[in-house]
Fold these 3 entries.
Entry 1:
Amino acid sequence: MNTLLQDIRFAIRMLWHVPAFTLAAVSTLALGVGATTAIFSAANAALLRPLPYPNSQDLRTVRTMFTDGNVTSGRVAPVELTRLNDRSLPIERAAVSAKFDVTLLLADNKPRAVIAHGVSDGFFELFGLPHTLGRGFVPEHYQANGSPAVIISHRLWREVFSSDPAIVGKPLRLAQGNLSPTIVGVAARDLDVPQGNDIWFTMRLEPNSVAHSFDGYMRVRPGTSDEQLRSTLEVVAQALGRDYPGPETNRAFIVTPFVDAMVGDLKPTLIIVLAATGLLLLLACVNVTNLLLARGASRVREMAARAALGASRGRLVRQLLTESAVLAATGAIAGLALAFVGVRALLTYGASKLPRLEAVSFDTSVFLFVLLTLVASALVVGIAPAFQLARTGLETLLNESGRSVRGSRNTHRTLRVLIIGEIALAITLVAGAGWVVKSFANLQAIDPGFNYRGRLVTHLTLSFSRFRNPGEVTTWTRTLFENVGRIEGVTAVGSSSMFPTRADTDATPLVHVEGVTTPPVVSRRRVVSAGFFNAMGIRMRQGRGFTDDDRATSAPVAIVNESFARRYMPGMDPLKGQLSFGFPTIPPQTPRAVVGVVSDVRYASLTADSEPAFYVLADQSPMLQMSVAIATSLADPRVAADAVRAEISKADPVLAFEVEPVETLVASTLSRQKLGMTLMLVFGAMAVTLAAIGIYGVIAYASAERSREFATRMALGASSSNVFWLLAGQARVLAVVGGVLGVATAYATGRLASSWLYEVRAFDPMILAGAFVIVVVVTVFATVIPARRVSRTDPANALRAD
């Protein structure tokens, strides 16, 4: 221990005496460790850390799908929930929820929009977290004559009710239906299911209902394998298909680990970015190794003297590794501080993009990661220089006769290999950034099927107690749209039951097309107002759109999209077709005439293909929840937002809503991809910078080492340009070799990443060539300054020392 402490003190003293070298090495390591730790902290919180629920590894989400390719909402039906709760199955409990947008009336009668979910019996028991306050729901709350009750989220309790400890037993005022259910509990702080929910209330379900309207969850019994669960659910699905032909035929269960469902499409982005930071850390370590090797040349005499005085090779290696460890520890501590700043930046910039971001912290896992990074960095940066210097013997002192000792051939060879490695790593990172940028650009270039520029959107939930019949909803909506349409700059107003790019939960009824002999098909059904297609810029391909002449009292009509016409009306004129729909059966009714065909619209997301859909008129199917689109002729539609808010508030003073540009809404769907792109661009720039600094340092060292050789060449007749191009040519060879190796490495990693990115190919000539050119050009420029400095050396001054 005394010897170790002595080595540490000596290492600190040595590093203190070379502040420029120490600052460069510590800064380089801190950059790599800080970036890697910050991203690992986010990945740890989102992907690795267990969810805050007992035995969270046993939690699953449940969806359904048709195995024959038919369209489906993916949701679960009560009859399926009943079967999944069979005690003979390896499932402890299953539960469902359904979302509702409601308006909470505060003490001053001010409305506040909140998200509520109805939940089935056993929902809270499934997640296993005790309530903060109250005992929660009891069986009586699920009975037909049970009193209405709600459980509020910990966040709502804190923000709206100021953490009132006596909140249990008080009424909660809701605008919808003038309801005042009793608050029977405050949920646990960590319960956030579904994400962002504010209120839970009880739902009484019909056990044999086949209405697929609910999100499903389950907890499997401990020790149940995925294969066992999969085979069990196949048996359940087959039994449902036999017992409920039609809605349950060819339907299968899709089960996903709960943590994967929460993270969603962020997982590939986090993995790619985390891998990029690992490469960046490796590049930083290579850079520091170069610095240590270059500096080691000036310590050859020191190591030779130590060996002459009796120090063993192992003793020298230990001393040099101790110096590397001190250097790495200092860099790791500085990197931890940078990581803390980086996490704070992620909390600020990525609050709406990263799930479970509030759980990002420097816990034991993060500190263990930093410790492993420290050990790995110390070994990577220290081994080559340590063993290189430890080979020095007494003959070094005798051969050089007191003159300065130059680096060995092995040192120069090692430096050249490391330069090639730096160039290859830099090209891989720059190419990775290029692929992520290309993926984001491809996403932005997608045609969503509507025009999102110059438009506003607001989502309204009307109170069912205010309107006695559907006609009143139609009258109120028409009046509001007329008033909004008079606002200066507004050109069209329309509404839809579901807005494009939001989570697609449209109804999926059975549809029968007249004249088509196949069994009923499945399609999306969307309810829109007469002006919706104009308000959203959705193109009419054939026929006409809905007009003011299409009313509740007129013949029912429908409009289909291109996918519907292609798949379900092949070889016929869609405008001569008629369709009828229903679920679980199609009731006998007058078929609706198809009066138009509109372009496909990407409703689920920008990357999801459009599905067969038909539109019905809101006047003929009034709705209490709607998304209202407002088209304007303004360069910035937000100019009209205040006037729109005023008209809606005048129409219903207790309606809670927000008005935002449609462009902002569409951009928010790409926020996670944009975050990944930004991080990759930063890491790519850092990689190029580190490579340039490292290559500059090595070339400068090599130039200084060969200054007497170049002076001799110039004294014998070589020109300055000859010396300059000699150095530049050697650097060019290293750049080309490293570039070829980097392109090959980038292609190999690109094949892995391309499956996670949107329409990106590993062999993309523009990206690979661009990365090659960028790094090689930077490498060449990094050699110009030291090469020019050596070429301008006065040979007489350089040789006078000899």
Note: The first strand starts at residue 59 and ends at 66.
Entry 2:
Amino acid sequence: MPRATLSGPRFAIGVVCLLAAIDLLTCLTAPSARAANPDAIWHVVHDQCVTDMAANHRPAPCDAVDLAGGYAVLKDLHGATQLLLIPTDRITGIEAPQILAPGAKNYWQDAWAARPIFERRAGRTVPREDVALAINSKYGRSQNQLHIHIDCVKQGVRIALDAEQHLIGPNWADLNMDLAGHRFRARRLEAADLSGANLFQLLAQDPQARADMGGETLVVVGASFRGGKPGFVLLSDQANPLLGDIGHGEDLLDPTCGVLGRP
């Protein structure tokens, strides 16, 4: 029997198969795989960002890691500016009991404080009224690790909220118009930042929300109220998958940052 050699049809077929396997591995590690794997961002943050920060004082592939604060900031797959604020502890999502516990970590303030990273990606200073934070319901998310989206608010949403601002009070109430095709509840919060309020707990003050936190989406839009008082408009929506509402508050964000216009 002739000795096998590294040439001929069998070798060519083997090379093709090897290249196909490499392509498959590349696909599994590409950004699209992150969307398909519900634990992808957890593994990126826990296995890569935190490990790199602890060993080398670099947050790669995250934009930032605060080991003492217990969170990381990671570029989202969508758009040029959108970021994700992700706990370095294992927390499933908006339904997790840890976020309502006394003394719970205030991830919303961490997300708001990450605006300088967002502005570097935007290439300019972004007014607070143009910035929005959002967390999707358990029906509207692709990842089973709590993450807060940071991006520009849609221009139409900002215009609508500005028009209705005088009707938005300190308690949860239905808006008079739809946003992204859904009727959100809204309340105002007068504060320069979010350090003094646990927004998950404020949401849970609404009996409807507390009964099914997993079905809730929460969006926070920066605002300036009458007299120049800084604050926020909080928006919540209860998902109803049977009616096509999956609680996707991220719909109020704009990864193109059209609200900023041209640089």
Note: The chain has eight helices and ten strands.
Entry 3:
Amino acid sequence: MDETALRRDIRAVTSMLGETLVRVHGQDFLDLVERVRAKAKDDDGLVTLPELDLPTSTRLARAFTAYFHLANVTEQVHRGRALAEDRARDGGWLQQVVERVADADVTTEEVARLVTQVAVRPVFTAHPTEVARRSTLDKLRQVASVLGESEGLRRTRRLAEAVELLWQTDELRIEPPEPIDEARNGVYYLEGLSAAALGDVLEELRDQLAEIGVPLPLDARPLRFGTWMGGDRDGNPNVTPTTTAAVLQLQALHGIRLLRLLVDRMRRELSVSQRLSEVSPELRERLDAALERLPEVAPRYRRLNAEEPYRLFLTCVHVRLGLTEQRIESSSRHREGRDYRDDTELMDDLMLVHGSVREHQGDLVASGDLERLVRTVAAAGLTLATLDVREHASKHHETIGQLIDRTGELDVPYAELDRDARREVLSRELAGHRPLATHPLPLDEEGRMVSAVFDTIRRALDAYGPRTIESYIVSMTQGADDLLAVAVLAREAGLVDLDAGLARIGFVPLLETVTELEHTEEILTDLFADPAYRKVIALRGDVQEVMLGYSDSNKAGGIATSQWQIQRAQRRARDVARKHDVRLRFFHGRGGSVGRGGGPTYDAIMALPYGTVDGEVKITEQGEVISDKYALPSLARQNLELTVAATLEASVLHRTDRRTPEQAERFDALMDDLSAAAHDAYTGLVERPGLPDYFLASTPVDLLGAMHIGSRPSRRPQSGGGIEDLRAIPWVFGWTQSRQIVPGWYGVGSGLDALSEGGDRTKDLREMYDAWPFFRTFLDNVSMTLAKTDLDIARHYVEALAPTELHGILDDLREEHDRTVAAVLAVTGEESLLGTNPLLQRTLEVRDNYLEPLHRLQVQLLSRFRAGEDDPQLERALLLTINGIAAGMRNTG
């Protein structure tokens, strides 16, 4: 990246911000901003920041926040340019990977087989970690667009206009978004990706594979999108069955409108005349039938395109898509031959056109925009993305228990059965024929809500097709009975019928605590050994999806233990699945922050255990990560291509352990010891008396709900108010805002030090760092978090807000932080954190000049807020500091 050009553009946009501040608030206010920023550079800057009135505090917080927003978007633009330059010089991610595949000892036939299994799915969630409003993001996208123009007076004026509008836009939401609002935001990104980046990446993959003689089947789906928006019910009472139905209708309407636009473009382009070239008899026959069934095709098209059969055929496709849109909007029934039942019928029509063009007009025309359209439809379908449904395991047992208890066949109530007894009862029910009750099911209000979800899924599959919903995820899975309970409820709704060979959805265990990760082998063995459930897997193509929860396992056990247990769990699952001839699809529930499993995507995929990718990867994308990766078209393409490339490389080239057998045994033993010691240190902290009070006092976590950044409550239902009831997002949010960032590093230093108690293990650890991608990625992510941690800033939160008797906790944090920094540097061999990434190092240093006054301001305002001052302007000013710190840190939770 051209750092000089980057700094120049940052100075340009921030100077425009200064001019805006003068125009709106006068020179005195800009002078105040500069004085405050200058004070932050002094050693005592945080101490000497003066008390300010609330209007001034509010404007000051907004000014620093706007600076970070403008600096961030400028960095994004330059990152996109740098990636484009890298592509021109070194080739794109896919080109580099395919070249490595070509150089490897892998046959073309084997590569072709593995390519058919590639299925990458970023899954967009509504997890509330994006503090910036959509309106703010739109203004920043405008800034990015103008920055991409050639320099000149027009560019300068348009930049100044965009910056002025940004300042005039309120950063805070008036009220929390509803799930349908979150879905609209997701659809915004999905539409943009499906219209451009998706087709770009699929074309690039096809062309690069062709260079080594490997075809990419036309109907292959190596890249698709998923979503949880409108389907994630776990702990969110706002996501009802009605919500799910409304979100799916929203997705379908936007998806179909996009497809109509793409088909219309293709219709205008494919102007082949039958006077000059032939078309297939099959296409002509289907065209004649379509024209008879579709009086909506305007007479002028029938007349003007009478000798342009492709145009006329695509006009029929366009009309049918319009009728499909009408059917979905009115919730009416499918009419054969008029609207499309699902995307498979649409694909059949487009494949017919493509086959005719390839046969009669040649590969050059067929492989251009027409093929791009076919691949886009294959990937996006009618609904842009496949919706996952998620619910907590306990909800299903409470519901199924009511039905089973009504039969009177159990000696004790269902709720009193242990897991083995439950599994036996549920397996028998799943294998049987009888319904447990007639419809409507005799359930209490909560049970009816759970049951209604399955009815909604069935209706959605009927209305939009089989790819609308594929997975039902069971949160807090602890045993095979948790999956069997869901399968029986699905049977009651007609989604599963083993006698009829029907399993319309799959069931996914979510293993999200250290305990469940340790019991992965037992849980999956019980599932695969159950004859009825094994038949469900067979009906789903012998594929079982398993979701791994990074956030809750980290919150419960610390980052070292969480990362290691997830690595171990994948190996256990892989080995169990192979014994039962089952293919696994791992779904990685990663957050944006390192403390919730975040970090560079390519490195994360390459660090997965061998044999666990096998072509298929699902990864959650959420909050600020979505806007950071996909807001700009250039970055959207790069990030999608990078993920596909990493998945292809891991699938083809990393099918065996990259470590020697001796290294594998030694490295694993070292990680076992490191994890155990780190876990002891971490649990010693979180179980320490006073830690809950310390956390709640020294962080602004109590204000997360007031940020209105998500529809889901920050605490679990029926919570007692303690830390254990907090979700992982507010846990990371609080630590990050106060710059303690405990979830991203605490315990790692103790773990590394413990390995040297019997002698210096630096040589072994350096060998691990060099030879083992998992360990290297783990330590690199910890290093990045350590660099963002600033316990000098944290001290001001603690001294001003926490009871004196709890101040010793910060001393312990500092001791562990120093220990971790020293231990990490000893392994990496660097002189300082981020030593191999000087640009990021300097970027963080510059940001600190603007972050420090925001932190000080936040501490001042929190002190007044906690003292009982109830001026609405006070909360607003506080929320703006949260917004600004999140922008400066580049993540929330």
Note: Residues 701 and 719 are 16 Å apart (CA to CA).
